[in-house]
Amino acid sequence: MNPQPDTLTAANLLGDARILWQLLRGQPARHRDGAPSNAAAHAATLQNFYAPQAERYDAFREKLLHGRRELIERLAISPGSTVIDMGGGTGRNLDYFGARMLSLARVEVVDLCPALLQQARRRCAQWPDVAVAVEADATTYRPQAGANRGLSHAHSHVDCVIFSYSLTMIPDWRRAINNALRILRPGGLIGVVDFRVSRRDPPPGYSRHGALTRRFWPRWFGHDGVHLDAEHLHTLAARTEPMVCEERMAAVPYLPGLRAPYYLYIGRKAGRDAGRHAAPHSAQESAV
Fold this sequence. Notes:
Layout: H1 10-25, H2 29-32, H3 39-50, H4 57-64, H5 68-74, E1 82-86, H6 92-97, E2 106-111, H7 114-124, E3 131-135, E4 158-164, H8 173-183, E5 184-195, H9 211-222, H10 231-239, E6 241-251, E7 259-268, E8 283-287
Parallel strand pairs: 1-2, 1-4, 2-3, 4-5, 6-8
Antiparallel strand pairs: 5-7, 6-7
């Protein structure tokens, strides 16, 4: 069940203004300047920052976080699959699956922020036999053993892992990717949509951002604990077989003229089941 479209009422505009003000204020310097010392510290940082935004989180982010619906719709996931949404926040991605939710064996929304997970649990209640929200660290999480027939042994029978604007918020993002690949079955999919900047001299086939873009957006998003890294996309492409790789620019809400770079990536883990999710590969730069 999809939520009703957001309307520009005075109350909603006020809520968005409060969120925008908090984003402009950013996280405390001690949190944004370096990675938290452990998962508990990172969870506390997320809770302090997002708890005041939780009720309007989805409506505001709908204007900012582009490509999420398209990512979910382009994932070639078979009925009976198990999906893990790492850093899934409020569980908004569940809505993008639409009727496919009822065909899946299990969807686990994993996040460290209790305030966002509270919203996720309300959403999961629409699919009590399929969806569950779990408070856990994306770098170490293992799917709940015995929770469904797809996780009977070795925790390596997950069909799809999603990072939807979460990889840039995970301090040890390489470890998060390693963990995702560890729990994926051979031929399983990893789907990522997130902000990015390019390398100064990217390989052929990748966009090259100017010096201003490469400096401005990491500073802008880093203010709120979102850390853009040119190596995210290259690491994904090196660790999995690229099936979809698209680089884009998108508008920023309430800030006319600003367009933030982001990418959409779907990769396949190597293995003997690789043909199960075959899909065309594409790489392009587009505006949204």
